[in-house]
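Input/output pair, single chain:
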Amino acid sequence: MNHEESRGAHHDAGQYAAPAPVDELEAHIAGLPYGVMANDTITPPKPPSPAQPRTEPLRGVPAHVGKRPPSYPPHPLQSPSLRAGDPFAACSPAVLLDGAAAGRLTVRAVSVRGDSHNWEGSCRQDAMTVTRIGPPEAEMLLLAVADGVGSAAYSHIGSYRAARETARHLDREAEGVHAALSAQDEGELRAIANKAIANAVSELRAGWEVSARNEGRPYADQDYATTLHVLLVPTDARIRERVVFSVGDGGLFVLREGSWEARNAIADGGVLDTRTDALPHAYRSVKATLLRTEPGEVLLLGTDGITNPLTQKDPEFARHLADAWGGPEVPSLSDFLWQAQTRAKSYDDDRTVICVWEEGA
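Output:
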């Protein structure tokens, strides 16, 4: 008996027949979900519950420390124009925000155009890189910050390219870096860093010379001048050593027991050397800083837009960020951005900061 005959037989017997399913087109026309029977009763979905009142305040304008507010407005103003002839500057965003997780490590990173650059309408000269390098057995987080020298015409390009090319060259040396970290061999780490950064600089210089020639302008190394700091953290929790490779000002801090410690050697907490070394030309060697950290401590890598006020020059600023980033929970990306924008009068440079948290065992 076919379907039509069966349905007729049921009607003849005075029984209700289950209707045939509605096909997809018929369902669409009738406003029914596909596969629902034509005579089925459709229960409409419950209306959404009223929105709950917001319990946390909107972030709004970044906070500032000190009795006197900063001189500049706390938001981006005009930006460079493509008609000015520098597409890289004109298309560089005012803010970069990033994050990552690897095992028990969590990273938050932000690069923000400084108040003075917002006011002038110039681009952000800082740059950053957050990535992983090395094979699984020698994997490390690579975190880099670069601060283009303010007086250099193309330092925004120099900082951007230096951070990325250095990451690429250190990836080639990852097994050697990992072995040297495990052995706490600072001399070998320094040798690897000098080789990797020298090779990166050589490639960058060659590319910049070609670009200058194609654009009909003279080339000068100092036009691309930038500082650079690269922090390498093994993802293997059994290896407690970390290393930072440095050229120029800015650098690394460790948050321990509520206080920021500047790091420049494995055995001490001495002040950073803030000479104005810069890539690609004005440096003699790369510094390698080996240190050991424990779960619960926070690593902070930054350009001088944040490392300068973190020193004793502005203890209120340091306390503010220690309270924000020293708690039991890692901040969300949006919270980290808002906290990193905390303002202090006279500190209006670009600000790039990368923090690393590690859970306990």
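Residues 2-38, 265-274 have pLDDT under 50 and may be disordered. The longest strand covers residues 140-148.
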